[in-house]
Amino acid sequence: MKKYLWAVFILVAGIVIYQYVQYQSGLIFHVYEIDEINSNVITKDNQIYVNGELFQVKGVQMSASMPNYRFSDYAADQADYMRWMKDIHEMGANTIHVSTLMDDDFYNALYEFNQGHKDQPLYLFQGVRVSDYGNNTPFDAYDSEFYDILKQDLRSAIDIVHGKKNILLNRGRGLGTYRKDISSWVLGYQIGDSWNNNTVAYTNHNHNTTQFSGTYVKTDKDANAFEALLASLMDDGLRYEGEKYGRQSLISFINDPGNDPFAYDGFYAGQLSKTVQIDVSHILPTDALKSGIIASYHMFEVPSDFMTYFSEDTKKTLKNEISQMNPSHYLNGYVDLLNAYYDVPVLISNYGFSSARGSDTKESLDEKAQGKALMETYDDFMESGCAGAIIHHWQDEWGNRTWNTNYAVNVDESIYWDDIQSMNHGYGLLAFDPGKEKRKVYIDGIHEEWEEDDVVYINDGLKLSMKQDEQGIYFFIHGNQDKLSDHLILPIDITSESGSRIWKDHETTFERPADFILELEGIKAQMLVQSRYESLRENFLSMIDGEDPFIYPPKKDDSAFVAINMIQKKMKIRENVTNSKPVYSEVKETGKLIYGNGNPESKDYYSLSDFMIGKDGIEIRIPWQLLNFSNPANLEIHQDYYEHYGVETKTISKLYVGLGTINDKQIPMQDVTLKRWNKAETHERKKQSYDIVKEAWRKQP
């Protein structure tokens, strides 16, 4: 009996050890010699070749992001991924990029999809990234939260795509049982996402080791310590896949204009946060590398005259490269410069344009303009000599944060509502529109969605109806044409902590202290906010005009109603210290409502539409953020900024609205109960930009 028990114990132990070593350990097994390693993806003449044929990357970035779920929930299942891959393939794309380890449903879906599309499969660029904590740690890049995590994740990614990995616990990344071998469709691995330049500088300061010599890559004499670290990671990944699986894929790390190889004059470098350089040219292949190294770039805006801020040495060194720049190309030829500089393929691994209502530039793009910008920019990239480009992003991501609206919203709860004022929510080609199957309201001036129960206010021949959904509050104004063509005023009372019954410079008064005024005159409309409740002033006044907002705050009952603005990205540069004035941020009016048809089924659909006049009346949408809601799902609004020294919130259950004309002596106001929700109801809709990309890419080889 003891022998039997020992035999069972040894068998079970053997299985456990085999499972651990094979699927969990991440150890290198020297199975293949260098001359036995193959690669179906190589680089040649600064381009990418797959199975011996030139391959032009037409890619799109994908994640597991869905409304109601955090990124780390990996809520999308295999059916979701399959549906999205089908649409991506039909759009003409040939590549998907993921920036981190995904759950097993994603890889199972890619395997199943490509089994049915063997002649035209979807290829994969697999990314691994350092956590926000690791990237912003007070330590350098050799810290375990940085280097060790990247090394471990790169090995895990390789095991995953070869179908030999179990991940039971994986903080912030995908997990599951990975058994599908998709390695033949993997183009390469991309290390990192965006590098904190302070971490890069601190690493270079702390470490004298600037040289690395590995089996597949090595650094040249000009490399810095951070580049040596990247070379070490790249070599480890190549060695791990080669020796364990007999395969080589392309290898790269993510770079961006903030960390590119070009040195700036010291006075301008600080203003542009351009204080370090990372250069893939300092990492060289050895004779053992059969696949290749590529330069992968995330693109974001740079000053239009960026090259004038280069150091004198940079200008001299890059004289020939600068002469090859085409100023009519994207970013005034910045990508031309990259292609002229590098001797490896340049891949734009992340570029995009948002179709959100809010932005940090002068113009917001509607969905058609988004698609046009994507394709014009893609053509610029290809004319510049790039090996291809990857669009950011496949789907809108409600969980993304946006620098100029973070202060105004509860960013941890933004997954529950469609914040169209936050730019980073709208980069997708796929929208998640409110409503389980269709929207409650389409802004088209047609009354058919509105019922008698929606009427909240009647006054002197005008009738006001109201609805709400995950995107905002909607009004429908009924009345005869004479009334509708009048100068209409719609006061709104949100908070009891401030507001005014009087509108400065106008004779009209309100029954209650109003916080907002919706002003309508024909096809012109705007939202105004009472000066005390203007969130931009308290948060950004010092950046806009240099004043302290707390020295002379507006009175609680101040009668001034002001435009609702958004702060813009500061792109101006101070030319000298002694003579130039401070460079302040500009603003744009976001409270100005946009006229147009907001029904996607209409031939004249305009995705940024806020209101429309029809034969039945005027239909209006007010985004939640314009009304100072920080989390509308829980009906959380801003409190008094000057009593709380910033944005603090409280919950409400109702608001008050009124409706009248500019000539009314007093406009009565009526309370309207608001509804909370625990889970957003949405349906998917491919944007107009999807169709534009599809039309362009399906014409290309």
Tally of structural domains: 2
Which CATH architecture of the largest domain is right?
Answer: Alpha-Beta Barrel
CATH topology of the largest domain: TIM Barrel
| Spatial order of the strands forming the largest sheet | 4-5-6-9-11-13-14-15
InterPro entries: GH
Structure description:
The protein folds into two domains: 31-432 and 685-697, TIM Barrel (Alpha-Beta Barrel); 440-569 and 580-680, no CATH class. The strands form ten sheets. An eight-stranded parallel beta barrel has the order 4-5-6-9-11-13-14-15. It is built from 16 helices and 37 strands. The termini are far apart. 25% of the residues lie in helices and 23% in strands. The radius of gyration is 28 Å and the shape is globular. The chain is an alpha+beta fold and 701 residues long.
Map the helices and strands.
Blueprint lengths: L1 H22 L17 E4 L2 E4 L2 E3 L1 E5 L16 H13 L4 E4 L5 H12 L7 E6 L3 H4 L8 H18 L3 E3 L8 E3 L7 E6 L5 H10 L10 E3 L5 H21 L4 E6 L10 H6 L11 E3 L9 E4 L13 H6 L1 H5 L10 H8 L4 E6 L15 H18 L3 E4 L38 E5 L20 E5 L2 E7 L3 E7 L2 H4 L3 E6 L6 E3 L6 E6 L1 E6 L2 E7 L4 H11 L15 E3 L1 E3 L19 E3 L21 E4 L2 E7 L5 E3 L4 E3 L2 H4 L4 E3 L2 E5 L1 E2 L4 E2 L1 E5 L8 E5 L1 H10 L4
Short description:
With 701 residues, this protein is α+β, with helices and mostly antiparallel strands. Helices cover 25% and strands 23% of the residues.
